[in-house]
Sugar ABC transporter substrate-binding protein
Amino acid sequence: MRKWRFLVPIVLLVFVSTLLAPSPSPGQATTITIATVNNPDMIIMQKLTPAFEQQNPNIKVNWVVLPENELRQKVTTDISTNAGSYDVMTIGMYEVLSGWAKNGWLLPFDSLPSSYDGQDLLRPVRAGLSYKGTLYAVPFYAESSMMYYRKDLFAAKGLTMPQRPAWTQVETFAKAIHNPSQRTYGICLRGLAGWGENMAFLTTLVNTYGGRWFDEQWQPQLTSPEWKQAVGFYVNLLRHYGPPGVTSNGFTENETLLANGNCAMWVDATVAAGYLANPQTSKVAKDVGFAYAPVAVTPNGSHWLWAWALGIPKSTKKADAARAFIYWATSKAYINLVGGKEGWTSVPPGTRYSTYQNPAYVKAAPFATLVEALINEADPTHPTAKPVPYVGVQFAAIPEFQGIGTQTGQAIAGALAGKMTIDQALQQAQSSAENVMRQAGYIK
């Protein structure tokens, strides 16, 4: 009995301490981790996050900012293994349509607040981020692809860029303007390997040459005449009129090259228009012109449709805080905030009809009408001249495409670097794609 006399005060002390200890407050800050790509628009989002935290003092934001290829790899691994490292992921249309929504990996946005005005989202963009009519990621910015060119360099050579150029014309322009001794290169295009890097652009080039990834029976078509013509044109164009080190250049690197005055032409995402037209970020802002992405033999699939969007993985334990951030970052109010703080050419484009009805934006952005038209014209359900069994302009919305596209991109980068012939690269890619499609049960 004696030992209990000593224990009683200790027990009482612990009990009283427990009562007096501060309990977790309902208003205690929740920290959410956001994985995003290192594109300029996302850097601005990160920069403006203090405005969100001031409005939501109970939520703190932790950022993980990565290059595009690395981001894709990390978020795919994380969500497929249910690891739960992130509360918000920056993903694209491919992820939503290729099985992430169907597999239940993403939380749905099935009850948008009325104040958010979901009907203001551009219909093609909303459809591309939906599964069975339900939105599974909210667009931060959306894009098609277009031609950027230096009006001053064209004028100096007496050249005129058509609104709808042909690739044969582009080659002629590149040859006329290319001047490597002055670090002015005829054309810049993606050469960095990756399904979302060089293959995003190359797929549109193959499309407009009349090619496709798969026929109606899911047989890969990478050694078809159309693929050989398109890849041959691409390799020849960049070897003769492109910048040095082209296989290291993705979206960001080419954007920087053009903004610094080193490219006469660049075909890539429309989202770069604001960056290139902004004197604060572009040395050639007053000289940049805009046109449709070039066409070879068919306009089908000559310009893509994509959205970088914010999604919530099922593994998060902080869904409410994640939704609060996403609604803020994709709202009309956020677009107005960017316009006021960074200038109207810097607002995230391609997501809301109201952006293209805003007089301040339309006045500041000479590319606005063209970008809206390109997004509305892109048709992921009919991306090629020949019938295909897949959806997607610059990708095929099947889980296997990520691996197939990356392997194909690596082979073509090898051909561009002179490590193999174009025929060897495409045969290697074809064999690899056939193996993947056979193992997945698409073909026998």
In short: The CA atoms of residues 1 and 141 lie 73 Å apart. The two ends are 80 Å apart (CA to CA).
